[in-house]
Design a protein that fits this description.
elongated, mainly beta, 4-stranded antiparallel sheet, 5-stranded antiparallel sheet, 14% helix
């Protein structure tokens, strides 16, 4: 009789273990494909104010970067789309009156950048750099809108004491001085 119990117990364990192997709990189904709508990105709006002593007077230099949502959208090469930017540079006298105001877009620098930056780049920024003689110098850049990229074309914007603007291709990276190319071109006021 013991043998019958052992045989019956072995049979029950075999049946139970076979049933447990068949029930894995996995349900195989197809995951629904969700349609991804890619948003157009901004490189980031900002505003910066610097106070300088220029030509013996106090001035405030206000620089604003604003996404141009009404302009052409740029594809930086990997399918990500970005708005281009416009940069507004204002130079204010101590009493708050405006000495200079100019809105810069990528098209202002088109003759200084190659076709790939004209097509896939954005105006990244214009920032105050230094005073040299009667001129204010600003560092400007047009390049990849991807924040992780370091691809850009460095440019220099020079504003004279009379408000004339000229653009130079920067031949010195990350230096406060040095000689720029002399083939600058006067930009006309709009």
């Amino acid at each position: 009789m013991k043998t019958c119990y052992v045989a019956a117990l072995a049979l029950v364990l075999t049946v139970v273990s076979c049933k447990q192997d068949k029930r894995t709990g996995d349900i195989i189904t197809k995951k629904p494909v969700t349609e991804v709508h890619q948003t157009i990105q901004k490189t980031g709006d900002y505003s910066q104010t610097r106070h300088v002593d220029w030509l013996g007077n106090d001035y405030s230099i206000v620089v604003q970067r604003i996404a141009e949502t009404s302009s052409t959208v740029v594809d930086e090469g990997s399918g990500n789309k970005y708005y281009n930017n416009k940069i507004i540079v204002r130079i204010l006298r101590k009493d708050g009156t405006e000495f200079f105001k100019r809105e810069f877009t990528k098209s202002n620098f088109a003759s200084y950048i190659d076709d790939s930056y004209n097509k896939n780049g954005v105006l990244l920024g214009v920032v105050f750099d230094r005073i040299e003689g009667d001129n204010l110098y600003f560092a400007a850049s047009v390049g990849s809108p991807d924040r992780l990229s370091d691809e850009y074309v460095p440019l220099v914007v020079r504003i004279s004491r009379t408000g004339n603007v000229s653009v130079l291709k920067d031949s010195q990276l990350d230096t406060g001085g040095g000689q720029q190319k002399s083939d600058d071109e006067e930009m006309t006021e709009d």
